[in-house]
Specification:
heterodimer; A: 363 residues; alpha/beta; Glutaconate Coenzyme A-transferase; nine-stranded mixed sheet; three-stranded antiparallel sheet; 12 strands; 17% strand; globular; B: 263 residues; two-stranded antiparallel sheet; 11 strands
């Protein structure tokens, strides 16, 4: 007998024969237990990304991340998860493009879905093919705002929130976690949807700076990260730099993830490459064009492309070397500063990657 | 730099029509793509005092290049504040957004939007598309939604293959009865016409058509029966050379969103 009464229509529409696979995402009791048991003392939690992934990512975990789309996404930590060959993961991603890479290597089998694609770089044809080939199964459909409310509910310390989002749409018919009900205080009919608090198993959040205890500073959009940090059972902070605690105390006013959420702290400069790290480096437009256009064209292309970039590099430094090394770093820094108005305006024109034209440049 | 002598393409026309819908001094919520061009064009022309807000939580950025993601630096360039994502949608719920713009893969006769999949089988679609992103959230909550996209009978079917975002659901009062906030879509804009919804039945109706497009042509590009307005159908105001110049030199100089896709 399951602990939960899921939205039965969605369970049927999604053809889920065993709903126990859904439980852990909403299992507050086990999440609270995990939070109680983790190290509460202010201790040095620094380790390498290899150690953090080996220690804190278990096969079958529900994995998620911070950032948005290809902005401050922990791509390099994700690549390490792929290199270590973790299996049977469930994944929540704002843009599921980041899930595609995992699915190619058989790491992620289940998807909690709110967006698949690379915005103006187009739909994710690789995900489309793998979904139809049943290499990945969707466990729940969401809107960005709906899943944000699920994380926020966890951070608020509530069993869930009532929402007006997703209501009336087919998303509710393909999400076992959502239940439409009458507003409990209204006389007139007023449907609302109950969004349960969501508790991932493990989250990677890439930050600008962290101290060795895990106090972590984010500049730019925080997106869902403060909520995800509070919700997740295990949190791995990767940071562009490790700074003294007093630097956080005195200088880093703004969005701070408190140390006690963190299980591991990894110094990881260029951890968001090939995406954008606000203030530090611009995204590699040609890399994303290549993965969407060349990789998107066939499974073989995608595998070859990712073999080269993920399996063919051992860490982010080799990855940056492939992008163009110091020249790439200088250009990427200039571009992101200009984009933020912190540098003289520059001309953002560049040689776009197309199937007919590959300049070999990544900036 | 783009050639200023080439006539406006359908996407530039769309951007102009979008801009025309925006009143000065309003708060406008913008999704990715062509709505960004329309919003910034409005700010550069007749509506300099609008506040543009984005799903990343970026509030009122100063203009830079075209954003390539709703979280990219151009959506929060020197923003006084950046909201967390859940709060950025709450702006719409709480009544601080006057108007929102969204794209679609399909829109039906009641303004329901699909960005999930093409095909009847969820498990084996013809094409899996992006899913909701913030599309559903804006449609569910925003006072005045304007939908923007290209028009073919496949893109304007009688029923969408998947309701990502509720428009007027099954017409009449059904949107309100289902529990949604706001008025639902007030207009659908395509390069060939501007459509609104009949006040009672909530069925899609022609509001104005691009010069040269007759009702019959618009109907042939639509997969359901379009309603006619009671009076004569006016022409949609064509893009002015000044506006086209501003798009090509200032708003989208690299043609990021205003270059027609090649097959």
């Amino acid at each position: 007998m399951s602990k939960y009464q899921y939205n039965q229509e969605a369970v049927e529409n999604l053809r889920l024969s065993d709903t126990s696979i859904l439980d852990r995402l909403v299992d507050f009791e086990s999440a609270r237990e995990a939070h109680l048991k983790k190290e509460h003392a202010k201790k040095d939690k620094r380790m390498t990304i290899g150690e953090a992934v080996a220690t804190y990512v278990q096969d079958g975990d529900i994995l998620t991340d911070g950032g948005f789309s290809y902005v401050r996404t922990p791509h390099q930590a994700f690549f390490e998860v792929i290199r270590q060959g973790k299996k049977n993961l469930q994944m929540i991603g704002a843009p599921n493009t980041n899930q595609s890479f995992f699915i190619v290597y058989g790491c992620v089998d289940y998807s909690h879905n709110s967006y698949t694609g690379a915005e103006m770089r187009g739909i994710d044809k690789s995900y489309d093919r793998m979904l139809k080939a049943k290499r990945v199964k969707i466990l729940s459909e969401w809107s960005h705002g709906g899943i944000a409310q699920g994380f926020k509910a966890a951070q608020l310390g509530t069993p869930g929130v009532f929402s007006k989002q997703m209501i009336g749409s087919d998303i509710v018919r393909y999400n076992p976690y959502l239940k439409v009900m009458q507003h409990p205080l209204k006389n007139d009919p007023d449907p609302v949807v109950f969004v349960p608090a969501l508790y991932p198993d493990v989250a990677f959040i890439h930050c600008h700076a962290a101290d060795k205890y895990g106090n972590a500073y984010i500049y730019g959009p925080a997106v869902n990260d403060l909520a995800v940090a509070a919700a997740t059972r295990k949190l791995i902070i990767t940071a562009e730099e490790i700074v003294p605690e007093n630097d956080i105390r005195y200088n880093k006013q703004g969005q701070i993830i408190p140390f006690f959420y963190a299980d591991a702290v990894v110094e990881m400069p260029f951890g968001a490459v090939p995406g954008n790290m606000p203030g530090y480096y611009y995204w590699s437009r040609q890399w994303w064009e290549k993965v969407m256009r060349f990789g998107g064209a066939s499974d073989e292309n995608m595998k070859a492309f990712l073999d080269e970039w993920i399996m063919g590099t051992k860490d982010q430094f080799e990855f940056v070397d492939k992008l163009g090394g110091a020249k790439w770093i200088a250009e990427a820094r200039r571009q992101t500063k200009a984009a933020e108005g912190d540098n003289e305006d520059i001309d953002f024109s560049y040689e776009e990657y197309t199937l007919k034209h590959d300049s070999g440049l990544y900036y | 730099m783009q050639d200023l002598n080439v006539p406006a393409n359908p996407l530039e026309t769309l951007a102009y029509i979008i801009a025309q819908q925006i009143n000065d001094h309003s708060i406008v919520y913008i999704g990715t793509g062509i709505p960004m061009v329309g919003g910034i064009l409005a700010k550069k022309t007749h509506a300099p005092n609008i506040t543009i807000v984005y799903e990343s939580g970026g509030q009122d950025p100063i203009q830079g290049d075209m954003p390539w993601s709703v979280a990219c630096p151009f959506t929060w360039r020197k923003s006084p504040t950046i909201m967390e994502m859940s709060y950025s949608f709450a702006q719409c719920y709480n009544g601080y957004v006057d108007m929102g713009f969204l794209g679609f893969a399909q829109v039906d006769m009641y303004g329901n939007v699909n960005t999930h999949l093409i095909g009847k089988d969820f498990h084996k679609p013809k094409v899996r598309l992006t899913g909701s992103g913030g599309n559903n959230d804006l449609s569910s909550l925003t006072e005045n939604m304007i939908l923007v996209g290209l028009q073919t009978p496949d893109k304007f079917p009688e029923k969408v293959d998947f309701i990502t975002s509720v428009g007027h659901l099954t017409g009449g009062n059904s949107r309100r009865e289902a529990g949604l906030i706001g008025n639902g879509p007030s207009a659908v804009i395509s390069p060939w016409g501007v459509y609104d919804f009949h006040p009672v039945s909530k069925r899609m109706r022609v509001k104005s058509l691009t010069p040269g497009v007759t009702f019959e042509i618009a109907q042939s590009l639509t997969g359901f029966e379009l309603l006619r307005p009671e009076s004569e159908i006016p022409d949609t105001k064509l893009i002015t050379p000044e506006a086209l110049k501003i798009i090509r030199t200032d708003v989208d100089p690299h043609g990021v969103f205003t270059t027609m896709p090649t097959a």
